[in-house]
Design goal:
about 150 residues, 7 helices, elongated, about 65% helix, single chain
């Protein structure tokens, strides 16, 4: 059960980040279509401005780009399982920050309905795992523990 849970959590978190990035570029469809939150990067920038109303307007586009790059990187790291503990911890911090911004701008119901705090808790729990089955981390760990004289694929 532990193996299944760790793999499921890692993939669910990673694919959720990648799905959000895909939505920002319209890869799930246009705004107004079923299950599309933004549908374009411009709409995501507007949403970023709404959540970060306390920041100067000039900071909003760079923040939207930064958030997108971070979510893309964390999503990829989690899906392949490389540097998983660090990626999971960073994901938790990012999601807590996002949830608090949502709460300040939209009220508590928004981050609860989108399970932002649940995902943050899952991320932080994943960061405490001692192993990451079916991951690059596991493969690299096996390679590092080969007996002397063993061959490595480098």
């Amino acid at each position: 059960m532990r193996t299944f849970s760790a793999v499921l959590l890692r993939l669910a978190l990673g694919l959720s980040f990648l799905s959000a990035v895909a939505d920002r570029f319209g890869w799930w469809g246009s705004f107004g279509q079923r299950n599309v939150a933004w549908g374009s990067f411009a709409r995501f920038v507007a949403y970023t401005a709404r959540l970060n109303w306390f920041l100067p307007q000039a900071m909003i586009p760079p923040l939207a780009v930064l958030a997108t790059c971070v979510e893309l990187l964390l999503g990829l790291l989690l899906v392949v399982g490389w540097q998983t503990r660090i990626a999971a911890a960073c994901s938790g911090i990012l999601l807590i920050t996002f949830g608090l911004s949502m709460t300040a701008a939209l009220g508590l119901e928004a981050p609860l309905s989108f399970s932002v705090f649940s995902a943050a808790g899952g991320s932080l729990l994943l960061a405490t795992c001692s192993s990451f089955p079916y991951s690059v981390d596991e493969l690299l760990g096996r390679a590092a523990t080969l007996p002397e004289g063993g061959r490595r694929l480098a």
